Amino acid sequence: MLTPPPTPQSDPTRMMRLMWLASPTLPVGGYSYSEGLEPALAAAAQTGVRDEASVQAWLLNQLQLSWARSEAPLMLAALAAWRHSDLARLKALNDWCLQTRESAELRRQSEQMGRSLAAWLAQAQADGTWPQWPVAPAQAPSQALAPAPTWPVMFAAAAACAEASAEDTLMAFGFGWAEAQAQAAIKATPLGQTAGQRVLAALVAALPEAAHAALQVNDAQRQCFSPLLAIISAQHETQYTRIFRS
Questions:
Q1: 101-122: per-residue pLDDT in tens?
Q2: What is the rounded radius of gyration, in angstroms, for the C-alpha atoms of the chain?
C-alpha cells in the first residue's frame, strides 16, 4: 500500500523543526531562568508556593493569566507579520514586548533569548539546516529590532521560515515554556523527576485550552498584567542565594 504524501499540516519535517525550537537543548539559555518560580518559593509565606501541588497551581495560573494573554498572542501576531515582511508591525510588536516586561529580569530574559535565537537562526540558515526567509528581510533581525529582538518575536521568525502553521507553532511555543518551567521546578523546589513530570503533565493538559484562548486575543485585548509575578521577579534580583539568573 502506497503511503500518501504528507499534507502541509502533517509534514514531518515542519513538525520536527517545531520540536527543535521547543527543545531545551536549543542554545538560547532558557534553562537559566525560572520566570519568578524561584523567588516565589523563597517567599513561600507570602505566595504559598512550597511543594508540588502549589508549584503546579502557580504555573497553571501563569499559563492562563500571563502566557495566554501576553506571550502567546504576541508571538502569533509576529508570525503573521514575518510572513508579510511587515517590518513596521514587527518593530511595534517588539517594542510592546520590551515595554510591558514588568521587571528588569523578565526584560533581560526576553532580550537575551531573542538575541541568542537570532544568532542561532542566522547560523542555521547559513549552514543550510534551517529554511531561508519566505520573504527576504531588509535587515537582519538583530539590526532591525533594536535594541534587541525579543524571544516571542524571534520564535515566530524561526517558525515563519519553517512554514509552520499558527496552531502548531503556538503549541510548540507553549510546550517549550512548560518544559522549561517543569525543569525549573525540579531544581528549585526541589522535586524528584517523577513529580516534575506530573507538573509537566498538568501544564500539557491545560495547554490546548490556553492556546485556544490566545488565538482569540486581538491587539486591544493583549495584556501583560501579573502584579504578584512582577513583584516576586523584582525581589529575585536581591535574593540572597539563587540558582537561576536574575
A1: 999 999 999 999 999 999 999 9
A2: 18
Residue ranges of alpha helices (H) inside the chain are 12-22, 37-42, 44-47, 52-62, 72-83, 87-100, 104-127, 141-144, 151-161, 166-188, 193-215, 227-236
Burial of 205 (0-12, 13-18, 19+ CB in 10 A): exposed
For 221, the grid coordinates are 485585548
Angle (deg, nearest 10), helices 193-215 and 166-188:
150
* DSSP at 160: H
How is residue 16 written as a grid cell?
520536527
CA distance 141 to 148: 8
- Read off the pLDDT of residues 183-235 as tens digits, 9 standing for 90 and up: 999 999 888 999 999 999 999 999 999 999 999 999 999 999 899 999 999 99
User: Which residue has 501563569 as its cell numbers?
Assistant: 62
Grid coordinates given for 152? 516571542
Q: Is 186 helix (H, G, I), strand (E, B) or coil?
A: helix
With vertex at residue 234, the alpha carbon angle to CA 233 and CA 240, rounded to the nearest 5 degrees, is 90
Report residue 58 as a C-alpha cell. 502557580
Q: Check: pTM over 0.90? Answer yes or no.
A: yes
Contacts of 52 (CB under 8 A, 6+ apart): 189, 191, 195, 198, 199
